[in-house]
Write a structure and sequence with these properties.
The complex is a heterodimer of chains A (about 110) and B (about 110).
Chain A: E1 4-7, E2 10-13, E3 18-24, E4 30-36, E5 43-49, E6 52-55, E7 63-69, E8 72-77, E9 86-93, E10 102-103, E11 107-111
Parallel strand pairs in A: 2-11
Antiparallel strand pairs in A: 1-3, 3-8, 4-5, 4-9, 5-6, 7-8, 9-10, 9-11
Chain B: E1 3-5, E2 10-14, E3 19-21, E4 24-26, E5 32-38, E6 44-50, E7 56-58, E8 64-68, E9 73-78, E10 87-94, E11 102-104, E12 108-113
Parallel strand pairs in B: 2-12
Antiparallel strand pairs in B: 1-4, 3-9, 5-6, 5-10, 7-8, 8-9, 10-11, 10-12
């Protein structure tokens, strides 16, 4: 799936700051960050629709999303914690209700 | 509040058998419902969705799902199953007033033995 690209694919960190990047080439208006921990379902972290942010209030404040334009999505992580080890998926949709999600291949974050 | 329940964490069956993966939901109004599949080490792929109208919806890879309002279910079906269907399947719900937030069930790990 090259329509949604994520970088990096793999990330191994100690307690450091890092940013995940996502870009979609589908002309979509909504972009999402999902966290999938081992053997768990994807959990919505943040949603931008037409650049308006909707956040999951349970996400720790060390995660900061950014949407510089409608095709790009960033996730800044400061002082990662071992519980942050997971695969982070970027997804997009047209932004209208009941439309399917298109997922990127994910970034696997391993925190030492 | 909205929620999705997939009561079977694991399902194992033999190739050629019929598969049915269960999903039930809780939502105050008529929901939008989806099924996604995740192959090992891969991302999620869309299979099908229910919006309104027909209770049986057809999707990709030969799958279909039946929406039953009477018992708030949206079970995924395929016959016959193939070993390549082995994957994790997620049922998902979007509420009509949820601002495009889509919530996933815990998933069902399907193993189809050759």
């Amino acid at each position: 799936n090259t329509k949604i690209t994520q970088s990096p694919r793999y990330l191994i960190l100690g307690r450091a700051n890092k940013s995940l990047e996502c870009e979609q080439h589908l002309g979509h208006n909504a972009m999402y960050w999902y966290k999938q921990s081992a053997e768990k379902p994807p959990e919505l972290m943040f949603l931008y629709n037409l650049k308006q942010l909707i956040r999951n209030e349970t996400v720790p404040s060390r995660f900061i999303p950014e949407c510089p334009d409608s095709s790009k999505l960033l996730l800044h992580i400061s002082a990662v914690d071992p519980e942050d080890s997971a695969v982070y998926f970027c997804a997009s949709s047209s932004g209208t209700i009941n439309e399917r999600l298109f997922f990127g291949h994910g970034t696997k974050l391993s925190v030492l | 509040a909205q929620s999705v329940d997939q009561p079977d964490a694991h399902v194992t069956l033999s190739e050629g058998a019929s598969l049915e993966l269960r999903c039930s939901y809780s939502y105050s109004a008529a929901p939008y419902l989806f099924w996604y599949v995740q192959y090992p080490g891969q991302s999620l792929q869309f299979l099908l969705k229910y919006i309104t109208g027909d209770t049986v919806v057809k999707g990709t890879k030969g799958f279909e799902a039946e929406f039953r309002k009477s018992n708030s279910s949206f079970n995924l079906k395929k016959s016959p199953a193939h070993w390549s269907d082995s994957a994790k399947y997620f049922c998902a719900l979007e509420g009509r007033d949820s601002n495009n937030r889509i919530f996933f069930g815990d998933g069902t790990q399907l193993v189809v033995k050759p």
